[in-house]
Protein backbone atom coordinates (compact mmCIF):
# COMPACT_ATOMS: atom_id res chain seq x y z
CA UNK A 1 0.00 0.00 0.00
CA UNK A 2 1.32 3.42 -0.92
CA UNK A 3 1.29 5.50 2.25
CA UNK A 4 2.48 8.65 0.50
CA UNK A 5 -0.70 10.65 0.06
CA UNK A 6 -1.36 13.96 -1.67
CA UNK A 7 -0.91 15.57 1.75
CA UNK A 8 2.54 13.97 2.06
CA UNK A 9 3.64 15.37 -1.30
CA UNK A 10 2.18 18.78 -0.44
CA UNK A 11 4.20 18.86 2.80
CA UNK A 12 7.27 17.55 0.97
CA UNK A 13 6.99 20.41 -1.51
CA UNK A 14 6.80 22.90 1.37
CA UNK A 15 9.94 21.42 2.94
CA UNK A 16 11.72 21.50 -0.42
CA UNK A 17 10.88 25.19 -0.87
CA UNK A 18 11.96 25.93 2.70
CA UNK A 19 15.23 24.11 2.06
CA UNK A 20 16.00 26.21 -0.99
CA UNK A 21 15.36 29.41 0.93
CA UNK A 22 17.37 28.31 3.98
CA UNK A 23 20.25 27.16 1.78
CA UNK A 24 20.19 30.48 -0.09
CA UNK A 25 21.00 32.13 3.24
CA UNK A 26 23.92 29.79 3.92
CA UNK A 27 22.25 28.23 6.96
CA UNK A 28 22.55 24.52 5.94
CA UNK A 29 26.05 23.99 4.49
CA UNK A 30 27.36 20.65 3.23
CA UNK A 31 24.13 18.58 3.54
CA UNK A 32 23.67 19.64 7.18
CA UNK A 33 20.33 20.19 8.87
CA UNK A 34 17.05 18.34 8.76
CA UNK A 35 13.41 19.35 8.30
CA UNK A 36 10.07 17.71 9.01
CA UNK A 37 6.31 18.26 8.86
CA UNK A 38 3.53 16.33 10.59
CA UNK A 39 0.67 14.84 8.60
CA UNK A 40 -2.97 14.64 9.67
CA UNK A 41 -2.67 10.91 10.50
CA UNK A 42 0.26 11.55 12.85
CA UNK A 43 2.95 10.26 10.50
CA UNK A 44 5.80 12.62 9.63
CA UNK A 45 7.42 13.75 6.39
CA UNK A 46 11.15 14.23 7.08
CA UNK A 47 14.30 14.76 5.07
CA UNK A 48 16.35 11.69 4.17
CA UNK A 49 19.76 11.57 5.84
CA UNK A 50 22.65 13.19 3.98
CA UNK A 51 20.74 15.11 1.31
CA UNK A 52 21.68 18.67 0.37
CA UNK A 53 18.89 20.91 1.63
CA UNK A 54 19.21 23.37 -1.22
CA UNK A 55 18.75 20.63 -3.82
CA UNK A 56 15.93 18.59 -2.31
CA UNK A 57 13.59 16.62 -4.55
CA UNK A 58 10.46 14.71 -3.55
CA UNK A 59 12.53 11.49 -3.24
CA UNK A 60 14.63 13.24 -0.60
CA UNK A 61 11.62 13.49 1.72
CA UNK A 62 10.63 10.24 3.43
CA UNK A 63 7.79 9.02 5.61
CA UNK A 64 8.17 7.90 9.22
CA UNK A 65 5.68 6.96 11.90
CA UNK A 66 5.28 9.06 15.09
CA UNK A 67 8.01 6.96 16.77
CA UNK A 68 10.57 7.63 14.04
CA UNK A 69 10.36 4.28 12.25
CA UNK A 70 10.77 4.39 8.48
CA UNK A 71 7.59 3.58 6.54
CA UNK A 72 9.18 3.61 3.09
CA UNK A 73 12.54 1.91 3.57
CA UNK A 74 14.63 5.07 3.42
CA UNK A 75 16.99 6.21 6.17
CA UNK A 76 15.94 9.22 8.24
CA UNK A 77 18.32 11.64 9.92
CA UNK A 78 20.19 10.38 12.96
CA UNK A 79 18.46 13.20 14.82
CA UNK A 80 14.94 12.00 14.06
CA UNK A 81 14.24 11.48 17.77
CA UNK A 82 14.71 15.22 18.33
CA UNK A 83 11.82 15.75 15.90
CA UNK A 84 9.49 13.05 17.18
CA UNK A 85 9.97 14.05 20.83
CA UNK A 86 8.90 17.63 20.03
CA UNK A 87 5.84 16.40 18.12
CA UNK A 88 4.91 14.17 21.04
CA UNK A 89 5.27 17.05 23.51
CA UNK A 90 3.47 19.71 21.46
CA UNK A 91 0.27 18.54 19.69
CA UNK A 92 -0.01 21.91 17.90
CA UNK A 93 3.45 21.72 16.36
CA UNK A 94 3.18 20.82 12.69
CA UNK A 95 6.71 21.49 11.43
CA UNK A 96 10.31 21.51 12.71
CA UNK A 97 13.31 23.08 11.01
CA UNK A 98 16.92 22.52 12.05
CA UNK A 99 19.62 24.64 10.36
CA UNK A 100 23.36 24.58 11.06
CA UNK A 101 23.95 28.30 10.84
CA UNK A 102 26.99 30.39 11.67
CA UNK A 103 24.95 32.54 14.05
CA UNK A 104 23.65 29.61 16.08
CA UNK A 105 27.16 28.15 16.26
CA UNK A 106 28.73 31.43 17.38
CA UNK A 107 25.91 32.17 19.82
CA UNK A 108 26.67 28.94 21.66
CA UNK A 109 30.36 29.93 21.89
CA UNK A 110 29.49 33.33 23.33
CA UNK A 111 26.58 32.61 25.64
CA UNK A 112 27.30 29.03 26.81
CA UNK A 113 23.95 28.08 28.43
CA UNK A 114 21.29 30.44 27.06
CA UNK A 115 20.82 33.44 24.82
CA UNK A 116 18.46 36.14 26.08
CA UNK A 117 16.41 38.04 23.52
CA UNK A 118 14.54 41.09 24.77
CA UNK A 119 13.09 44.39 23.58
CA UNK A 120 13.41 43.55 19.88
CA UNK A 121 10.53 44.43 17.58
CA UNK A 122 11.18 41.24 15.61
CA UNK A 123 10.29 39.12 18.64
CA UNK A 124 6.72 39.68 17.41
CA UNK A 125 7.50 37.29 14.55
CA UNK A 126 7.43 34.46 17.10
CA UNK A 127 4.03 32.88 17.75
CA UNK A 128 2.29 34.17 20.88
CA UNK A 129 4.37 37.35 21.20
CA UNK A 130 2.61 40.66 20.44
CA UNK A 131 4.93 43.26 21.91
CA UNK A 132 8.62 44.09 21.76
CA UNK A 133 8.49 44.42 25.56
CA UNK A 134 9.25 40.73 25.84
CA UNK A 135 12.13 38.72 27.23
CA UNK A 136 12.71 35.14 26.11
CA UNK A 137 15.48 32.64 26.73
CA UNK A 138 16.75 30.25 24.08
CA UNK A 139 18.54 27.39 25.91
CA UNK A 140 21.86 26.01 24.72
CA UNK A 141 22.63 22.32 25.18
CA UNK A 142 26.02 20.66 24.87
CA UNK A 143 26.43 18.73 21.64
CA UNK A 144 26.01 14.99 22.05
CA UNK A 145 26.20 12.16 19.51
CA UNK A 146 23.95 10.15 21.83
CA UNK A 147 20.64 11.47 20.48
CA UNK A 148 18.38 9.68 23.02
CA UNK A 149 20.41 11.27 25.82
CA UNK A 150 20.26 14.69 24.16
CA UNK A 151 16.51 14.35 23.59
CA UNK A 152 16.09 13.44 27.26
CA UNK A 153 18.02 16.56 28.31
CA UNK A 154 15.78 18.73 26.14
CA UNK A 155 12.70 17.05 27.61
CA UNK A 156 13.94 17.56 31.16
CA UNK A 157 14.61 21.23 30.46
CA UNK A 158 11.16 21.78 28.96
CA UNK A 159 9.56 19.93 31.88
CA UNK A 160 11.32 22.24 34.31
CA UNK A 161 11.21 25.60 32.52
CA UNK A 162 8.24 25.34 30.18
CA UNK A 163 7.78 26.24 26.57
CA UNK A 164 10.32 27.98 24.40
CA UNK A 165 10.47 28.73 20.69
CA UNK A 166 13.77 27.03 19.96
CA UNK A 167 16.92 25.54 21.38
CA UNK A 168 20.55 25.59 20.30
CA UNK A 169 22.94 22.65 20.29
CA UNK A 170 26.45 23.93 20.91
CA UNK A 171 28.78 23.78 17.91
CA UNK A 172 25.95 22.35 15.86
CA UNK A 173 22.84 24.41 15.06
CA UNK A 174 19.36 25.04 16.39
CA UNK A 175 15.87 23.60 16.33
CA UNK A 176 12.73 25.67 15.98
CA UNK A 177 9.13 24.69 15.39
CA UNK A 178 5.65 26.04 14.69
CA UNK A 179 2.09 25.44 13.57
CA UNK A 180 3.05 25.11 9.89
CA UNK A 181 6.12 25.03 7.69
CA UNK A 182 5.57 28.72 6.88
CA UNK A 183 5.32 29.72 10.54
CA UNK A 184 8.38 27.67 11.45
CA UNK A 185 10.34 29.26 8.63
CA UNK A 186 9.31 32.69 9.95
CA UNK A 187 10.59 31.69 13.39
CA UNK A 188 13.86 30.48 11.90
CA UNK A 189 14.43 33.70 9.96
CA UNK A 190 13.55 35.90 12.94
CA UNK A 191 15.80 33.95 15.30
CA UNK A 192 18.67 34.13 12.85
CA UNK A 193 18.32 37.92 12.79
CA UNK A 194 18.08 38.12 16.58
CA UNK A 195 21.07 35.81 17.14
CA UNK A 196 23.04 38.02 14.76
CA UNK A 197 22.07 41.13 16.73
CA UNK A 198 23.23 39.59 20.01
CA UNK A 199 26.49 38.34 18.53
CA UNK A 200 27.29 41.77 17.13
CA UNK A 201 26.32 43.42 20.40
CA UNK A 202 28.21 41.10 22.74
CA UNK A 203 30.76 39.45 20.51
CA UNK A 204 32.81 42.61 20.04
CA UNK A 205 33.24 42.73 23.80
CA UNK A 206 35.04 39.38 23.89
CA UNK A 207 38.83 39.53 24.44
Automatic annotation (TrEMBL):
It holds the Pfam family Aldolase_II. Pathway: Amino-acid biosynthesis; L-methionine biosynthesis via salvage pathway; L-methionine from S-methyl-5-thio-alpha-D-ribose 1-phosphate: step 2/6. SMART domains: Aldolase_II. InterPro entries: Aldolase_class_II_sugar_metab (IPR050197), Aldolase_II/adducin_N (IPR001303), Aldolase_II/adducin_N_sf (IPR036409), MethylthioRu-1-P_deHdtase_MtnB (IPR017714). The keyword Metal-binding applies. GO terms for molecular function: aldehyde-lyase activity; methylthioribulose 1-phosphate dehydratase activity; zinc ion binding. Binds 1 zinc ion per subunit. It is an enzyme of class 4 (lyase). Signal peptide: none annotated. Keywords: Amino-acid biosynthesis, Lyase, Metal-binding, Methionine biosynthesis, Zinc. Its EC number is 4.2.1.109. Zn(2+) binds at residues 98, 100. GO terms for biological process: L-methionine salvage from methylthioadenosine; pentose catabolic process. Residues 13-199 form the Class II aldolase/adducin N-terminal domain. Belongs to the aldolase class II family. MtnB subfamily. Catalyzes the dehydration of methylthioribulose-1-phosphate (MTRu-1-P) into 2,3-diketo-5-methylthiopentyl-1-phosphate (DK-MTP-1-P). This is Methylthioribulose-1-phosphate dehydratase. It comes from Methylomonas methanica (strain DSM 25384 / MC09). The gene is mtnB.
